[in-house]
Write a structure and sequence with these properties.
The structure holds two protein chains of two kinds. By secondary structure, chain A is mainly alpha-helical. Among the domains of chain A are: about 95-225 and about 285-420 and about 610-795, Amino acid/polyamine transporter I (Up-down Bundle); about 430-565, no CATH class. Chain A is about 65% helix and about 5% strand. In chain A, the strands form three sheets. In chain A, strands 4-3-5 form a three-stranded antiparallel beta sheet. Chain A has a two-stranded antiparallel sheet with strand order 1-2. Chain A has a two-stranded antiparallel ribbon with strand order 6-7. The longest helix of chain A is centred in the last third of the chain and has 45 residues, at about 750-795. Chain B has one domain. Chain B is built from three helices and no strands. Chain B has helices at about 10-35, 35-50, 60-70. By secondary structure, chain B is mainly alpha-helical. Chain B is about 60% helix and about 0% strand. The interface between A and B is large, with 57 and 37 residues.
Chain lengths: ~850, ~80
């Protein structure tokens, strides 16, 4: 709208005036595109494109030399910048068409509470803190079993074409509808049936997401007194912070965050003392014990007042989030570790991968959930953020660029994970059952072992050239002994000696097992556990340890009893981060600190997701039950809220317990279900976006959400299909189910084998049923969406559920830094604006 | 917050620059953590009830109590 109705206050140079959008009163409310191509800008974009192209060339095409992980970062950043400048702007102009004369919900309601005009740079930080968590750190680490290239390509390409597009469009759509939630938008746009299914589907999928996140956390703490202590301390620190903020110094948020941070660092250091003290034995817990602890914690956190635990812990986690990302980026840029896994490993093409089952298509796209495309983000993008945004044209900066940052975190996690030797990576990420199976294969293959003077095992393959005469063939008896030692040492109530023997057996058996994996590393060699250790005789130099000695040295360096079979991704990333960061900060002595720092922040993110989602879903559940028993709608009714919380905790807790006790290792079987659930929420969000776009009359541009939707539907539906119907026991839940049933019916199983088979029957039945349920719900929403699209196209009905236009009287720039014109308009606005719009301004 | 920069030193622009950056960082951290919320509330209160003496703004303690208790909870992500 130009200033024809009222004489504009001509504060601006007349050249700039043509770029300014004013409302009827002549108040500036927006700026039109006003940047022009200048030679230096063209040159700059040329350089960015060239640099990014070089990065991609080195990663994807060049062979024969190990690649520095710095190129991951270069390729990623250049691609992000180009996608943001060109593709996101294209979507903005064609599909969103933001109208800065239209007031956003924050301006309309502006109540100083949830609807709060928030500076775009601050909101960017808020939004990022809300979407980022443990997901982008864990998924890429697991996906590294396929090599570094598939993961890198999907994280970068996926975010530009799918994840960031989804986040931005959902944010925009919700902002145009008063900040309504995804479920409500689904009801409005798709209809009551499709909308209700969407709400139920999101609820069920959140339960599996929580269970798997909690499983990652439990796996990182199992058998580690140091981690249990420091993570336990985060809860106590949060409680202290809560009391301090409530009673001692209310509102001193920055102050209490710093105090909390210092205490947190201290608790990591103190964890070392605890781990070497007599208390350590009491804190060495099994997975089952930790599961109950996490469930009790989740229940308490959800029923306790928010100020006591949740709010202060969020402050801590925001601090840690920013700090970690900066530290990791500095580490990778300064150390420039080499990628030691193959570009594309053998496990990309088959289903033999021990970390998670399934070939590249579709399971790569399921495993790297967050970081490329995450359905969970749609719940944030239709939650708090749209209620705080100042101008419609800021959506690109917050929605698209916020997700680019999350993807950047994922790239750094992948870069760190692939800098470990392939053998180390797999030793950490195989289940003990998988290790013993490979050891049995090693006996058949005639693998030889030699015991060094320190008592550690060195592994020799039969075709190897330099086998010493003292080496002996690995026997089946030896493998059986390892297996029983591990079982005895990890049982509840095992003695300290038994635990030590189990850790010894784990290291030895894993060192043998990795040589039997059907995979090669960056040099094309069979994987070997390798670790660089300072040479005591020669300061400054390093010696390379291999096999059992290397695994034991890693455990000692990071201050853990054992690092073998620590599945879930978090410990792997922590070892990799410690290995990178100790070279800049503190040397070997600091390595255990960095390891536990990394484990702690991952646990912190996970626990904050667990309790916040438990709390939110408990309210949803109470409202749903309230349809039949109205008393449940009263959230202050204690019996009702405790009951709902207990139901929610039981829902994810039982899945978690199932994962922890799974004979094949919970991550291997459950992680695909987590990925499928998260990606199906994304599919639901993209279906809603597509319906909205088509009903708005933008059929021509509907390919923008349809590309990621089609891809996401094909990967999730294929993955679900394989999980349900595959007759490959590594993949199909029901195949595993019938195999285990056949074993039980066949009889003659030992006590342990029988228990394992029964657990498999129970777990696969639940997992298989959930897979069917997910698929059916997503298919139902897809059908409802298609019907809605067809009726909209037939009738030409383009009514939308958008709120009607309301004239804006507010101005804020839409670029992160602000252009010259934007800054000058901002100054003019501050002079003429309604004062109620001005709090939060930088003074 | 004013930084006492001696106006006669040749490094004045440097001091100004550093203090400007420090102020910007402080502003950003306070806004991101929500530490400035009570100040904003007071400003807003003065606008809404400027001349009305019968209304008194909440004390800082009351304000934070109310804010945290009725704060909507974010569904955190993975």
């Amino acid at each position: 709208m130009s200033a024809t109705t009222a004489p504009p206050a001509q504060h601006q140079p007349s050249d700039d005036e043509r770029f300014i959008i004013r409302n009827k009163e002549g108040i500036p409310v927006g700026t039109k595109p006003h940047t022009t191509w200048k030679p230096w800008k063209i040159a700059l974009w040329g350089v960015i494109a060239l640099l990014g192209g070089t990065g991609w060339y080195i990663l994807a095409v060049m062979r024969g030399e190990t690649v520095s992980t710095l190129w991951f970062v270069v390729a990623a950043v250049c691609t992000y910048v180009i996608a943001y400048r060109f593709y996101a702007l294209f979507i903005q102009r064609k599909l969103m068409r933001p109208d800065d004369t239209n007031a956003t919900p924050a301006e309309r309601i502006n109540n100083g509470r949830d609807y709060d005009l928030t500076d775009r740079r601050v909101l960017y930080g808020h939004h990022f803190a809300a979407i980022a968590g443990a997901g982008p750190l864990v998924g890429p680490v697991l996906a590294a079993q396929m090599g570094y290239l598939p993961g890198t390509i999907w994280i970068i390409v996926g975010v530009c074409l799918a994840g960031a597009v989804q986040d931005m469009l959902v944010l925009f759509i919700s902002m145009r509808r008063g900040g309504r939630s995804l479920g409500q938008i689904a009801r409005d746009e798709i209809g009551p049936i499709g909308g209700t299914i969407a709400i139920v589907a999101i609820f069920v999928m959140l339960m599996i997401v929580l269970a798997v996140l909690a499983l990652v956390c439990v796996n990182a703490m199992t058998g580690s007194p140091w981690s249990v202590f420091s993570i336990g301390c985060t809860i106590i620190i949060a409680l202290l912070m809560g009391v301090y903020l409530r009673f001692v110094r209310p509102g001193r948020v920055a102050e209490v965050s710093i105090i909390g941070f210092v205490l947190l660092i201290f608790s990591i250091i103190a964890g070392n003392w605890v781990a070497q003290s007599p208390i350590a034995d009491a804190l060495t817990l099994t997975g089952t014990e930790l599961t109950w602890a996490v469930m009790i914690y989740g229940f308490c956190a959800a029923v306790l007042p928010v100020w006591l635990l949740l709010t202060p812990r969020d402050y801590l986690s925001t601090f840690m989030k920013v700090g970690t990302i900066v530290i990791l980026a500095v580490g990778i840029v300064l150390v420039q570790p080499l990628a030691r896994t193959a570009a594309v490993s053998e496990f990309a093409g088959n289903t033999a991968g021990p970390v998670f089952a399934g070939a590249l298509f579709p399971f790569l796209f399921i495993t790297i959930a967050c970081g490329a495309l995450s359905g969970m983000h749609a719940t944030v993008a239709s939650g708090t953020t749209p209620k705080m945004i100042q101008k419609e044209s800021q959506t690109r900066m917050i929605g698209y660029a916020g997700m680019l940052m999350e993807s950047f975190v994922a790239i750094m996690a992948l870069a760190a994970a692939v800098s470990l030797s392939t053998g180390t990576y797999f030793a950490m990420n195989m289940s003990t059952a998988g290790i013993i199976k490979l050891d049995t294969a090693a006996v058949d293959a005639g693998v030889l072992i030699d015991t060094t003077e320190t008592g550690d095992i060195t592994v020799y393959l039969p075709d190897q050239a330099d086998i010493p005469s003292s080496a002996t063939t690995l026997t089946a008896d030896q493998v059986t002994k390892w297996s029983s030692d591990i079982a005895a040492g990890t049982a509840v109530g095992a003695s300290a000696d038994a635990k030590a023997a189990a850790n010894e057996a784990k290291a030895a058996s894993a060192a043998v097992a990795v040589t039997q994996l059907g995979v090669t590393d960056a040099q094309g060699d069979k994987p070997r556990v390798e670790w660089d250790e300072d040479d005591p005789a020669n300061p400054g130099a390093t010696i390379q340890l291999t096999d059992e000695a290397a695994l034991k040295q890693i455990a000692e360096d990071v201050g853990e009893p054992s690092i073998v079979s620590r599945t879930g991704g978090a410990p792997t990333l922590a070892v990799a981060m410690a290995n990178i960061l100790h070279r800049i900060f503190g040397g070997k002595a600091m390595m255990s600190f960095w390891y536990h720092f990394a484990v702690m922040f991952e646990a912190l993110f996970i626990l904050s997701a667990v309790d916040a989602v438990t709390r939110v879903t408990r309210f949803q559940l109470a409202d749903a039950i309230g349809n039949w028993i109205p008393k449940f709608r009263d959230h202050s009714w204690r019996v009702g809220s405790w009951l709902c919380t207990a139901i929610v905790v039981a829902a994810w807790g039982s899945l978690l317990l199932m994962g922890v006790t799974d004979p094949n290792g919970g991550i291997q079987t459950l992680f695909p279900l987590f990925g499928i659930a998260n990606q199906l929420i994304a599919a639901i969000a993209l279906m809603i976006v597509t319906v909205v776009v088509i009903r708005k009359g933008y059929v021509k541009w509907s390919w923008i959400p349809l590309i990621p939707l089609a891809w996401d539907v094909s990967t999730t539906f294929t993955a679900s299909w394989q999980k349900i119907f595959s007759d490959n026991a590594a993949l199909g839940y029901w195949k595993q189910f019938s195999n285990a049933r056949a074993l039980i019916d066949g009889g003659g199983l030992t006590e342990t084998a029988l228990a394992n088979a029964q657990a498999t029957v129970r777990n696969t039945a639940i997992q298989g049923t959930l897979s069917i349920l997910f698929l059916a719900m997503a298919a139902a929403i897809l059908v409802a969406s298609v019907i809605r699209v067809i009726t909209a196209l037939r009738s030409g009905d383009t009514t939308t559920s958008e709120d009607p236009h309301q004239e804006s009287a507010f101005y804020a720039p839409s670029t992160f830094l602000g252009t010259r014109v934007e800054k000058s308009v901002e100054r003019e606005f501050e002079a003429v604006a309604d004062p109620k719009f001005l709090p939060h301004r930088r003074s | 917050m004013t930084v006492a920069a001696s106006s006669h030193r040749p490094s004045r622009t440097l001091v100004d620059g550093v203090s400007r950056v420090a102020r910007a960082v402080r502003w950003y951290v306070r806004e991101l953590l929500g530490a400035a919320a009570y100040d904003h509330y007071l400003e807003r209160f003065a606008l809404d009830h400027g001349d009305d003496d019968s209304h008194q703004p909440m004390t800082e303690k009351q304000y934070w109590r109310q804010r945290i208790d009725e704060q909507p909870l974010d569904a955190r992500c993975c």
